[in-house]
Amino acid sequence: MVGSGQRVPLLGARAAGAMAGSVEPGQEAGAVLVQVKEDLNKLKVKMKNTSLKGNVETVDISDLDTAIERTELGLRKHAENYLNAINRQVLTISSTNNKEVHSKEPPKWGLPFGASQKQLILPRVPVEPVTVQAYSKSALRVSQTSQHQLEMDMKIMFDPEHINNKAVLNQQNYDTKLPLITKKKSDPMCSQKVEKGHTASNLWGLPASHHMDSPLPLLEEDITKSILSLTEQRLILPAARITLQTPPVVHKAAPFHEFQRQHKKSTVGEISSRVDPENTDTITFQNSKRAIYGKYSSSKGNVAPLPSSSSMVSARKSKPVRTYPAQQLESELQIPSRAQPPQMSPCQSLQDPCFDCDIAVYHGRIDQKAPGFLAFKERYCLSWGSIVFFLEHTEKLLKDYAVPLATINCKKLAEVASEFELNETPTKSDILSVIKNQSTVEKILDQPGQRYKGQGGTEMAATKIQATWRCYRARKAYVRFRRQQWASGVIAISWLLRNHMARVKKTLKESRQRHLENFYIRAKHLAANWNRIRTSRRTIIHIPSLGYSQCIREHTPDLALQQNVQMGRLCDILDANVDVIYICPLHLSEELLQYYNKLLGLQAAVRSGNPEDMGDLQDRFKILTPEAINSFPKHRMCLATQLKYSPKTIKRIKNLIQNRDAYIIGGVPHKDDLAVADMLNVPILGSVPEVAHLYSSKSGSKRIFASACVPTPPGESDIYNSEQMIGVLSQLIIDNMEVRRWLFKVNDESGGNGTAYCDIISHLECYQWVQKECQRYSAERWSQKWAHEPALVKISQELPGLLAQHVQPVNEKRFPTWEKFLQTFLSQGGVIEAFPLSENVTNLTVDMLIEPTGKIKIVSSGDQLHADGPLRSSGTTIPQRSVDPAVLNSLCLKIGETCKSKGVLGYFSVDFVTFIHPQTMEQQVWATDLDLCYSDQLALTQLMLYVTDGNLDCSSSRFEVSLGSKKMNSQRIQHEMKTPSPIRNRCAVASSQLRHSSLSVICYNVLLQMCKARGVGFDLQEKQGTVFILYEDQKRCRLGMVTIGEDLQGVLMTFARNLFIIHQEISAPNMQGETNFKMAIQDIEVILGITAENKRKLEEEQPLKADALKE
User: Fold this and answer.
1) Does pTM top 0.70 for this prediction?
2) Which residue in 61, 607, 638, 858 has its CB near the most CB atoms, within 10 A?
């Protein structure tokens, strides 16, 4: 026997050790059973040895029970893990009769996976009926007689040679039998769809029917688990029938009274007149925190009726009080009950086919003992795991936000919960979807700071504050870091850009310096070989580029069209040794190209006077358009820059001038002219761009005229600030009291665009006082500066306001106000000069050429026409007839010499103004402007000479042509008689600035046909008539016209008649269009009036001179 002081080896410990090893799932159960067998054999041997030694003592049965219990626990735990690994789904219980379950025979447990199939039988131990908790904590007690009998049986059992050994082992008391589960009649249940899903680890307890008198001994921790969990742990067999006992209390639907029905006042307490308008199924009462769950109530089935009509009326008449949703729900908990309808048991609820109930959640807690909750739990027992999981998150959300009351729709809860897995957390919207008073709860959840009123609100608030403060500090540090990073990036990029810009500037400066040096080298070569080049075969490259500054080009409308008005440059092919390459800033259509082919093919016909002698001179001239004219639409580049970025055109020009003498004649010089010349390796017949820009400005021309000692209007130059302008103008007014109009000219503008005028004397209030002051002093004293000081002060005070009101810019589109003109005037600098004293003023332009050898020539001269105003030139009459040619030539030669000394080369033009001085009655000639570029007048002169084959002698201002020889053919006379060609004087009126918006409505062919039908054309024999210059065929709003005739008066009339005919043909009576034709006709009429008066005076003076000679 085993002594009391010794301990029996624990089978549970061995079993747990066997299961701790890492074996396959299918072999673990067999390994445990084998280990149990080995422990029993060791126990048997040990007891046998003890009995042989004679130490017969009582055996402690509690140790054996503890060992067996631990073994069962180990088997149970491992079986649970094994079954959970194989299948975690809850299956429905089959209703088929299972013989193994209902059999009273003890089941035979075999060892799987090929293990030994010997039956393991443990001795039966009588167990007293105790509770599960007591059973799990204390061992069974046996009597002294039983102990003695057990000792004898154990002695026989451990002696295999004993004759009663098998009998003892076969006794029923040593068998281990499973509890017998008797078949019970189950209560009727509603048909339930099979639900599948995972079970939860923290489920509510089993129904009450399984807590007490269970055939299986359950631990305390197993009681809190659900049926599904116990089934998976094999504490309840899968084949066992589960019977739900009928609850003692049967629930019944609570009736609600209608609104119109009156009720007596409850004796329990007064109704607080608070009814949830959204949840009519749930009513709360005072002194009770139990809610009605739809058809099932937690407050012993009590159902409150609706409040009486009197209470409702009194509630409506009471002053409304603003309450928050949380306060509203708190007040709803204080409504007392008025009636106690009969209860309905959970069993009755299960029998209801339209089962529906509500669960009330007070302050985030659910009453788990409420009948409605229990009924709902029993009905959805198969899917209870997912429902519990969903309810846990619902409780947590309501606790976190301190929601006093929320009503959950059970039917909706079951539908929503079935769609979720245990590892999938429901969202707030999912939880709100199952709450009946969703709007009220949602308002509470959306209240700012509501989260900090609920569960863990203090900690959450502290965490939020700390997180906000840390976020603020981190954000501040991050912003500072980003600002520093941005600043460092800006500095780095700026430094890189500065270095790159410095390198580019250095490279550009070096290239421009190289271009300039090459320019001077080629200019010297051109000067050395000029006499040979101008008489030999050569090619002239015409680039009519307007290389003004960027600000001027941006404000020049139709810059490309303005650069193409000098199509007369093509007429240089009049010299048989000259070929022309004309760079055109526009794409010309085939129609225009054919027109110029025919026009330039008239050379032979003009010389012979026979139209049939027209030739084809297309090999003598080329019109090329750079491919880059459309590549920079917004940069307002000049033509030279566009040609610089046109490698295909450059390559073609190189091919055309290969092995031939060539030079460039540009327009307004630009730095890119030098780059193009360097790329083509040809010289430029022109000035350096810096020199040209310096002396082409208004202030620069004044310095040239002052150096040449030619008369100029009274004025001052290089004015760059307002104080200087007011002081200079005040002094000019005092020094020239007879000048009524003063002109303001911006330095870099051309064509009258930067000019403004003001009749100061007419608006100067102190002018009379200044005249009296002048008369008060003698002429000698008035010439002193001190005498002018009072007048200067008064005039200086009055001038700013006078100029702001009465100055009139010539180009009002560019300068609509005096302020904008003054800003440009002071930024670029300018001059102030006097307007001629006479009303009859004539402006004239003289074109000159300084050859590379230094020879100065006058190549053209003409009187200006003003179709766009008195200060803007729009045409000319060639040759000039307003100034004595000798006087004009003298002035021009002086200016030419000065320009040559300044480094000016090539073509330039000088503007003069002439008038009769009203006091001396002598003709005055003032030099007013200087343009160091190829002018429009010179291009028109070239066309005039080409179509007449005439000669312009600027020294005598005579334009002579030789008429073609007439051929007399006769049948009788076979020889031809030739008459000598007579010489005739001609004059021309030419304009390149004629504008008419209606020209775009007809094609050029139609226009020429109409003019021919109205007698507008050119006579090749008489060498007089009209020739048109067409610029482009897209907008077709401008054209040029040259009219040639015998005398000035006749040619002016013909020019005006042509304008009238064109205007009449292209304009409708109600659509005159925008044009300068009318102003040109008016200016011509004024000129004709002056011409007629001069002619009359001349006729009157001739008899007087004849009589004086006779005497």
Assistant:
1) no
2) 638
In 3D, which of 1082, 1037, 1027, 1093 has the Cα closest to residue 1056? 1082
**The amino acid at 893:** L
In whole angstroms, give the CA distance from residue 598 to residue 406. 100
Q: If residue 640 lies in a helix (H) or strand (E), which one and from where to where?
A: helix 639-644
Compute CA distances 955 → 846, 879, 887, 907, whole Å. Answer: 11, 10, 10, 17
CA distances from 863 to 274, 705, 844, 955 (A): 106, 20, 4, 15
| Exposed / middle / buried, residue 475 (Cβ in 10 Å: 0-12, 13-18, 19+) | exposed
According to the 3-state scheme, what is the secondary structure of 867-898? CCCCCCCCEEEECCCCCCHHHHHHHHHHHHHH
Q: How far apart are CA 834 and CA 716, in angstroms?
A: 10
H/E stretch holding 1088: helix 1077-1110
Q: Which residues on adjacent β-strands are paired with residue 363?
A: none
Nearest-CA neighbor of 12 among 82, 65, 79, 84? 65
Other Cβ atoms less than 10 A from the Cβ of 23: the count is 13
Tokens 């006082």 sit on residue:
769
pLDDT of residue 253: 57
Amino acid, res. 645 = Y
What letter does residue 999 receive in the DSSP assignment? G
Length reported for the chain? 1111
Mapping DSSP to helix (H, G, I), strand (E, B) and coil, where does residue 522 land? helix
Whether the bond into 879 is cis, omega within 30 of 0? yes
Residue 635 has pLDDT above 80, yes or no: yes
- Residues facing 911 on adjacent strands: 845, 929
Q: Are 333 and 404 in contact (CB under 8 A)?
A: yes
Residues 6+ apart with CB under 8 A from 256: 280, 303, 305, 306
Sheet holding 958-962, edge to edge: 951-953, 958-962, 983-985
Beta strands across the sheet bearing 661-668: 621-624, 578-583, 538-546, 661-668
Q: Which residue blocks in 709-766 are alpha helix, DSSP H?
A: 722-735, 760-763
User: Is the per-residue pLDDT at 889 higher than 90?
Assistant: yes
Express each pLDDT in 957-996 by its tens digit: 999 998 865 544 444 434 444 556 788 899 999 999 999 9
Identify whether the C-beta of residue 800 lies closer than 8 Å to the C-beta of residue 726: yes
Answer yes or no: are the C-beta atoms of 696 and 932 closer than 8 Å.
Answer: yes
For the stretch 275-290, pLDDT in tens is: 343 443 433 333 333 3
Report CA-CA distances (Å) from 598 to 475, 605, 618.
79, 11, 10
